[in-house]
Amino acid sequence: MFSKGSKKTRLTRGLFLILALILAVSLSLAGCGGSKSASSEAGKSGQSGQAEKTAKKSGFNIALLDGTNSNAWRIQMEQNMQQVADKLKSQGLISNYSVYEGNNDATTQAQQMDQLINSGVDAILINPVSATALAPAIDKAVSKGILVIAIDQHISHPKVISVTTDQYEWARIQAEWLAKQLNGKGDILQFDAMAGAPANEVRHQAFADVLAKYPGIKVLKQVNMDWDEGKAKQLMTSLLATYPKFDAILNQDGAAVGIINALQEAKHPLPKAMTSDEWIAYLRLWYDINQKNPNNPLNAIIVENPPGIGADGLMIAVNLLQGKKLKDGVLTSDPLDKENKNAIMIKPTLIITNDNLKEWYDKTKDKPDTYYIDSVLSQADIDKMFQ
């Protein structure tokens, strides 16, 4: 009896051990499967970083890497972001917000990003000097679960969400307007911004695409003014020596005042048409020219590119860090990065020409010359983007 009962006990224990092993393996596989699903979903949407930090809902450590703050537009962008950061701090959503300047040096910006990764930030917002130079640092950041958001300019990286004004549409509107003012014929000068900067490259492409439809328009010279009014003035002065006769100026933002000042100092006629941005100093100069020359007004256009886009990006980043998901259709492709749907592109709506110049001159009378006509998305607008 003893011998027979001992054998039965051994068989029962063996069966329990086998069942326990099967259960452990099943639980392990289920855990691996769940982790893979979360990672895959984050990869599909481009909403990197927040999937790994779902337990944290507030007290985020966020940093801004700005390529430069050497012009009024970037200064205003940073001020907008600081105001939003202060509000989020008061609500406990942000514990720390820091700002770093790259001085228009891509190597410096990449080094700053490496330092931030090692410091343990939750999110890095970047207005890049060069998107390609940051690729290794971005790879490192997303591998550590850090959310990376590009603001103002697009970064072609599948794990980075870019929050930008639709720069292609911004440039397309202006180039089409210019072509129509010239009736499709004429010689023009083209002022681009900083070579290699993502916004510059997509605007340059939009200019090229539009002008290709108007073979009667010839670009006499294309130059880069690096978003610097002083440099734009110097370039215009130099160009007058070689190209004294031209019909219009196709211009990215940050150059119009310098260009006009150079023309005025040389007592050179103003162009038949000119494009630019929403800087108040330029709007007032344009208005004053027209007041003094009602029979020969400056024919110009402004298309909005609001500095508030940085604050929009900061609010979107906090929502993503909290684990919220963007609705289907919010993410789209940048025109120069069609392989990835990782951009939130806000189309410009404000356009100023001679038809409504006085209206906007009156609306902005209380603003300093350094101010840009601006807008920041409301909380309701941000909420509409999320599930």
What would you note in describing this structure?
- With 387 residues, this protein is α/β, with parallel strands linked by helices.
- It has a six-stranded parallel β-sheet with strand order 2-1-3-4-5-11, sandwiched between helices. The chain has a six-stranded mixed β-sheet with strand order 7-6-8-9-10-12, sandwiched between helices.
- α7 crosses α8 and α9 crosses α11.
- The N terminus is likely disordered.
Give the key terms:
6-stranded mixed sheet; 387 residues; alpha/beta; globular; 12 helices; disordered N terminus
Number of helices: 12
Radius of gyration: 27 Å
- Specify the biggest β-sheet: 6 strands, parallel
Low-pLDDT residue intervals, each spanning 5 or more residues: 1-45, 48-54
How are the strands of the biggest sheet laid out side by side? 2-1-3-4-5-11
- The overall pLDDT, averaged over residues, is 87
Helix share, percent:
40-55%
Overall geometric form: globular
Structural class, from secondary structure content? alpha/beta
Count the E strands.
12
User: What's the helix-strand series?
Assistant: HEHEHEHEEHEHEHEHEHEHEEHH
How much strand? 15-25%
Distance between the termini: 68 Å
